[in-house]
Amino acid sequence: MKIAVCALLLAGLSVAVAQTQDATVSATSGQVAAMQTKLDDWAQLGYYHNTNKSLPAAVPGEDRVVFYGASITEFWGRNGSSFFPGKAYINRGISGQTTAQMVVRFRQDVINLRPKVVVILAGTNDIAGNTGPMTPEMTENNWQSMTDMARANGIKVVLASITPSSDFPWRKGLHPAEKIRTLNAWLQGYCGNHGFIYLDYYSALVNADGGMKPEYTVDGVHATVKGYEVMAPLAQAAIDKALSGTRY
């Protein structure tokens, strides 16, 4: 009897182990497939490829502006928020992207669209390490690369502060608030030294802990409709300043 019970227990254990192994293999296969898809187009050049091809050329006198960034940019105009109705503004945000990816697609998704102004909002995903560990200097270098390309092509530059956050829901425990403050201080100084417009979303959205005020965020990072309503006039004022200025 004991032998039979032991045999049944061993059989059940074998089945459980096999099922666990199958689930692990399945999960691993799915992860590998997802990683392969990402590696095939790491900078996601295909994301806006067809949309860009169908975009009409800018007409004389048109104040075309490209908003360039990650999820906060991409989601602007969704879920009840309004993205500058009546304006010739183009949204080229891709959720999750880091500045390294944005440098690669800058020509396709900004320069080739021939805007007068580009509004760059980036840095959150660098701190989160979405494409691997990044130092502040790496983020700063990528900002500089994008502004160099814009200036070389006669595009006015608005550099937006990283929006506040005290934690990232997809990568908890990084304590990003101080890192965000430090990068924003560098960015503001860089704009002042090189004649770019600094767009300060941070001061309007931040709470006492360095996070975003709860009425302005859905998850501590991404904006609510109210959050975008705060950001919109700040962005418009920065664009107006860039368009009216005599220097980049």
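the 2nd protein, sequnce then structure:
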Amino acid sequence: MNVATYEQRATLSAHRKRQRVVSSPVAQKLTAYKPHAKHLQAALMILFYFAAFAFFFQTSQAEFEEKSMGYLSANQQTKKTSSSTPSTNTPKSKTEATAKTLFQAPTSSPEPTEEQKANAGLPPYNTEDESAPSIAQQFTSSGYAYGHCTYYVAKRRPIPQNWGNARDWLTRSKAAGFVTGANARPGAIAQTTTGRWGHVAYVEKVEAGRVYVSEYNYVGWNKLSYRWADESDFKYIY
């Protein structure tokens, strides 16, 4: 056997082996998938990134839940500590102290004064009394707002319906020819400009520099009440 013949046989044997590998089913399938290698590589990269994202997301979620549970436990512990601390009965402000004083029951009932004894037959002070004189009589077709002081006085006195708000009654009554003054008399209209819209009342009684008036909307809207006041608190329309 010469060298050339041996080399030729070795080359032929290697060629046959390559042919068997190339002609094998696996090699043929790989050859068929070779044009799609780039697409396959891209798909594998996407799967890899997705798996990495899912792993980190799960880790972050677990860490977040762990921290949240820690915060909730600390908050509940703080609430338990606060609720177990004994509270004091000391008022926190002047308003609370005043309210506590107002709602405390009086220790004893004071004796009525001579003035209170003399006026015992009059309607009670600042309380509703639906049986007041002329309360149901309609003297004029009033255009005043229902339940307000002007509405009530217009029912007690036959006056024009265009005097407007109570603060304007003194001026407009003069223009309408009514006599006005600083001295009270029973049946007069008591008027004041106090407040945004003013106020009017009906004079029931006059006694020693004081007037006993009936009125609406002093203790509450659409409520009739009675009270004593200084004569100088009002101007009067006769």
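The two ends are 158 Å apart (CA to CA). The chain has two domains: 3-75, 126-237.
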